[in-house]
Amino acid sequence: MGKIDKAAQDGGSEVLGIIPTNSTNLIGETIGEEMKVDNMHERINQMIEHSDAFIALLGGFGTFEKKFHTVCSAQLNIHHKPIGLLNVNNYNDKLISFLDDVVEQGFISQASRKMLISATDESGLINLLQ
What is the Cβ-side half-sphere exposure of residue 101, based on CA atoms within 13 angstroms? Predict the structure, then answer.
């Protein structure tokens, strides 16, 4: 994340690192402003409060939690911010297919599914988010 933070800051964007106080696996120096929070739930809520949009990159359980939390929050009208999924090298193809299948099975609505926008390149995703 440090490279992304640095590129955003170099491009003129504000960078806010929201970090749980109990986190012991941080690597490197925080770029920009730093906000300490008590736990991951508070971290995600602060991310929602301080963000204009969301772009989920490649990742594991933590990334999945954050992307689904932001979509669920949008479903509940807690926020109305765009949510993007950057599908680098088709990493998320199976997830996208799964979500489409969940719609077909009737577990989520098509409107809710459309809340998670995806593209294979950053410029395409940013265009869709705007």
Answer: 6
Q: Which residues have a Cβ under 8 Å from the Cβ of 127 and sit 6 or more positions away?
A: 119
Rounded distance between C-alpha atoms, residue 47 and residue 13, angstroms: 15
Task: Identify the residue whose tokens are 């199976």.
Answer: 94
Write the CA distances from 94 to 54, 87, 89, 90, 97, integer angstroms.
20, 10, 12, 8, 5
Q: CA geometry: angle at 57 spanning 12 and 97, to 5°? A: 140
**Pair of tokens at residue 56:** 């989920």
**How does pLDDT run across 45-57, given as a tens digit for each residue?**
999 999 999 999 8
CATH number at residue 85: 3.40.50.450
Examine the domain organization and report whether 37 and 60 are in the same domain: no
